[in-house]
Amino acid sequence: MQNSLDLIKVGGACVSGLARNGYAIETVSDFEAVEQLVREHGKTSVTAKLSAHYNDFTEESGFWLVLREGETFVAAVATRFDNVGRENMGDYMRRTMRRHYPHPSGDTLLNFTTALPPGFHGRMAYIGELFVAPGQRGSRQRLRQLMLLLHCCIATKWPVDWTYAMMRDRDVMAGFATTYGFTVQVPGVARWADPAPAGRGDSEWLVALSSEHLSHMMAYYAGSLESL
Fold this sequence. Notes:
7 helices, alpha+beta
């Protein structure tokens, strides 16, 4: 169970840190509106897993964090919540990807690794669609504060067992998975049918954060806010 005071301290420090540099943050549950917003600022696509075109999101099933500087859009990131119970996550991923990315062969995701952390199932928060507007890129600290704040928002909204994402090899190798707070990083987890869906590939990494690691991380940062 998360310590709510730790989450409040860390989340508040992230909000304050962003505010000191002129940024304001808001949560938005209207996926269609934010998808239109990010497209207007140069994002060319939104994956099916987090698109309002393929999903009927409600306030209880997902949200976006939107970062602005005054009236200027800066960045956004989305998350969704699914309770998959004790279903094998490989089976879950293959089934959902088949629906989100129909393939002529009938099998979109040919294989998903079994090299997953113990207990990788249950109440799952999926993060994706992190987008920083052109001309606003370059601040790793801002990204770190945004993503740690997202972890705090997820933990206060849902009783999650795991938070996870799929990341490109080049971004993980550049250290962004660590910047974003993911303590589990597994390369080459998926093998896709040819041609792979746009934006997907066999070199993707699964990055994840368990509730236990989140509790530890938040307790540490709550006692060391200057390190955020």
